[in-house]
Design a protein that fits this description.
Elements lengths: L1 H10 L22 H24 L7 E7 L2 H9 L1 H8 L1 E7 L8 E6 L2 E6 L6 H27 L1 H6 L2 H30 L1
Parallel strand pairs: 1-2
Antiparallel strand pairs: 1-4, 3-4
């Protein structure tokens, strides 16, 4: 119903006679912020991982649980420390620990992020065999993603014809999948020793 849109547009401050002939909004490159984008993507990935773990363990979001985030570098630690307010709000931790020197809890569920691993100690909620099976499933999925990315990057036609930005993005994805795979294998090995 374009007449409703036109009526609303006419009641607002505007330039031009009608919305149907107005210039289409343009993108402002000066508003792009790749650092903020990376930070919010890390936060979203963390929230998804925590919610998935809670769902698999049957722990409702209303029940606070301990949240341990083992980061690979200071940059990721800074990102999670800067977004603690959002982590508190969306993950509902009883205790939040963000550090690079976290000992992996034996009875805990984990989520693998790019540059970090999140652990939720759930001794009363976690079945060790189920967690091993979940990590094996995660490893298979990650191996498939690594294989897909490697296959795509080894395709000479893709590398030659795709824009450089797309190739670089695929290389970054491949590296991220490989990091997650290594972390998942380490976690499975630690569960085997528990």
């Amino acid at each position: 119903m374009p007449f409703v849109t036109e009526r609303v547009w006419q009641s607002m401050p505007h330039v031009g006679d009608a919305i149907v002939v107005a210039d289409y909004p343009v993108e402002h490159a000066e508003f792009d912020n790749p650092i903020a984008e990376r930070q919010i993507n890390q936060l979203i990935e963390l929230i998804k991982a925590v919610r998935n773990i809670r769902n698999e363990a049957g722990a409702p979001m209303s029940k606070p649980v301990d949240l341990l985030i083992k980061v690979d570098n200071d940059e990721n630690a800074a990102i999670f420390n800067a977004t603690k307010e959002y982590i508190d709000r969306f993950c509902h931790p009883a205790q939040l620990v963000i550090d690079s020197q976290i000992d992996e809890p034996k009875l805990a569920m984990s989520g693998i992020l790019a540059g970090a691993t999140v652990y939720i100690p759930m001794a009363e909620l976690v079945d060790l065999d189920e967690e091993k099976a979940r990590m094996e499933k995660e490893i298979k999925k990650l191996e498939q993603e690594v294989q897909r990315s490697t296959k795509k990057l080894s395709n000479e036609k893709f590398v030659a014809n795709a824009p450089a930005a797309v190739v670089e993005e695929e290389k970054a994805k491949a590296q991220e999948w490989e990091q997650k795979l290594v972390a998942a294998k380490e976690r499975l090995a630690s569960l085997a020793q528990a």
